[in-house]
Structures are given as structure tokens and as C-alpha cells.
Amino acid sequence: MARAGRPKALLEITSDEREQLVRWTRRATSAQALALRSRIVLACAEGLTNKEVAARERVAQQTVGKWRQRFVDLRLDGLSDDPRPGRPASITADQVERVVVDTLESAPQNATHWSRRKMAAKAGVSASTVGRIWKAFELKPHRVDGFKLSSDPLFVDKVYDIVGLYLQPPESAVVLCVDEKSQVQALARSQPAFPMMPGMPEKRTHDYVRHGTTSLFAAFDTSDGTVISSLHRRHRAVEFRKFLIKIDHQVPDHLDVHLVCDNYGTHKSPAIKTWLAHHPRFHIHFTPTYSSWINQVERWFAYLTQDLRQRGDHRSVQALEHEIRGWVTAWNEDPQPFIWTKTAEDILKSLGRLLQRINGAGH
Q1: DSSP characters for 192-252?
Q2: Contact (CB, 8 A) for 102 and 123
């Protein structure tokens, strides 16, 4: 005789319970456990056996039996988790709010910002609790980002001018972002580095010996990412004029040349103005003050610093210049133009929101 097995608890649901269970099955990822339990109950209400429901939901039959019985005994309330053992939470909502408000609106005595230890002492909770609250609200008092708002009275006009060159460059013209990376130091570490090994990063001494400086002049072509560059030991209007001459020789004669550069004094010296007057195909566009972010060559300089300078070890200026030339040559073999997407309106709206936040923080 076949075994009858344990009798299944009769499971019937009302229309309201069905509606609620269906809503729970559509819960987001954070409530998938409740969604699974709701699907189990709905399947059981269709008359399926525990084995059939377990196969459909890919769970154990014991799991199906547990939530079937819990629903029969406690209805919808039975699908929630049991209270967990252990001490109940000792941190109240008021304490959490106090930690957040104090972090945002005050500073500790004799310090510029809060640490977990200082905030714990003030709030009367543990440092680990402060850490969890900060993590939940994405507060990072130990970090700070820098910014500098432009005071240029022609800021808006210059933003429209330069962004217009990026998004809609003139026909029969090349747009070059120009700048100098001055005082690039040839630094030699005082001791040889220890190479990276499994489980151990590369180790370098913190001190170094200076072996002189050089200046890198660069013109970044916004259309294809290629770079015209020159290295000079000094950084004056004379050197900048030599660089403009090099650009003039390398850019085909039939193209106009639009230069985006900052307000450094050498770019506006009488010698440069005279040279530009004799070369009418050159058009210079100055970025707003304190707005180097709008000059694309600055991003290219950042790549150079990351790849070559941060961990460089150069025993002479000649060795540094040789590596820079090699790096630029390799870049131009596979240039990567930057894709500018923000319009002038987008930039100005973003700055407007920043100003509102700054003004609001001051009240």
C-alpha cells in the first residue's frame, strides 16, 4: 500500500489577500524573500502540491510546507520574518537624526571636521554606530573636494564661445586646445624601488633628488586627438611664439587655426599679439579665469601625469624629455579624441545649482 504522507493544510485565500499577495510578488530586489513566499502561497491556492510548487519555484519541499502552514495559521502576517533573537536596537531615530544634523551643521571644538571618535563622544553612541550612520547617509567628513568659481565678467560669453567650438567647429578650420605644463621636474628617488610581488604593492622611497625642470607645450586637436608638442627649458613669450610657429608649419595652409588657451601672461604679451596680427588665420579664444576644466588639453596632461610622471624616476632633464617625447609619439600613433557632450546651457545650469547650494549653506 502506498504511503499517504502528511496531509496538506487546506489553503484558501480571499480576493483581498490575493490582491495583496500579487502586489508583493512585484516587490523590488530588496524584498525578494517576501515575493517568493507570496508566489508559494498563490501556487498552493491553485491546488498544486508541495512538490509541484517546489519544482516551479526551485526551492525545497520543506520550504513550501513551512510557508503554506504559516499562512494557514497567521494569514498575511505569517509571511514576515520571525523576530530575531538578541538585544533590541538601542539607537533611536532621534539619535540618528542628531548625528546627521551635527555632522552637517556643526564642527567639533579645536578641529575643522568630525571624526567618528569625536562624534561618538558628542552623541553618546559608539564610534562604529557613527560609522554605520554616516555610511547609510553617505556622509564623509574626512573627504573634501576643491572648486574655484570664475570671477570673469565675460564668463558666460566665453563658455558659449568655447563650447560652440567643441560642438560645432567651424568649417575649413582646426580647433587646438593649447597650454603649457611648466616646471616638469626630473626627479630621481633616493633609493631603488622594490618591485611589486603577489600580496605586496611596489614600494618607493618618499624622498627624491631634483635634477632640473623642463616645460611641455602642447596643442590638442579636438577633432582627432592628435597633439603637437614642444619641450623648452624656459617658459616665456619667446618659447610660446616658437611653439606657435611650429603649429603654423604643421597645420595645412588652407585651414584656419582656432586656439583655446588660458589667460597666462605669455599668451597676451606684445610679442604674441604682434605675431598673431601677422598671421590672420590664427584666432585665439581665452578660457574664463579659474576655468581650466573647459580646456581639453588639461585632460590630456592628466593622462601624461598618470602614465609617466607619478612614478617616474629620471636622473636628468634629458632623460625626462626623452621619455615625454616617446610618450607623445606613442599617443599620436593611436590618438583618442575626447567627446564633449555638455552644452553651454547645461554647464551654466549646473553652476547655478552649485551657487544655490553654496548660498543656502551660508544661511
Answers
A1: PPBPPBTTB--B--S-EEEEEEEEEEEEEETTT--EEEEEESS-SHHHHHHHHHHHHHHS-
A2: yes
Spatial contact of 335 and 217, defined as CB atoms under 8 Å apart: no
Collapsed DSSP state (helix, strand, coil) of residue 1: coil
- 240 and 180 in contact (C-beta within 8 Å)? yes
The packing angle between helices 32-45 and 50-57, to 10°, is 140
How many secondary structure helices (H) and strands (E) does the chain include? 13, 5
Q: Which residue has the cell 624656459?
A: 234
Per-domain residue ranges of the chain: 15-79, 93-136, 162-353
Q: Can you say how many angstroms the Cα of residue 48 is from the centroid of all Cα atoms in its chain?
A: 51
**Could you say which of 3.30.450.20, 3.30.450.40, 3.40.50.150, 3.30.420.10 is the CATH number of the domain covering 162-353?**
3.30.420.10
Distance (Å, rounded) from C-alpha 186 to C-alpha 301? 16
pTM to 2 decimals? 0.63
Per-residue pLDDT of the chain (363 residues; tens, 9 = 90+): 444 545 566 678 888 888 888 887 776 554 677 788 888 888 888 888 888 888 888 888 888 888 888 888 888 877 766 555 556 556 777 788 788 888 888 888 888 888 999 998 888 888 888 888 888 888 888 887 766 677 778 888 888 889 989 998 898 999 999 999 888 777 777 667 767 778 777 777 676 778 888 889 999 999 999 999 999 988 888 999 999 999 999 999 999 999 999 888 889 899 999 999 999 999 999 998 888 888 999 999 998 888 877 676 777 888 888 888 998 999 999 999 998 888 888 888 887 777 776 665 544
Strands 227-232 vs 208-221: parallel, antiparallel or unpaired: antiparallel
Name 18's Cβ contacts closer than 8 Å, sequence gap at least 6.
Answer: 42, 45
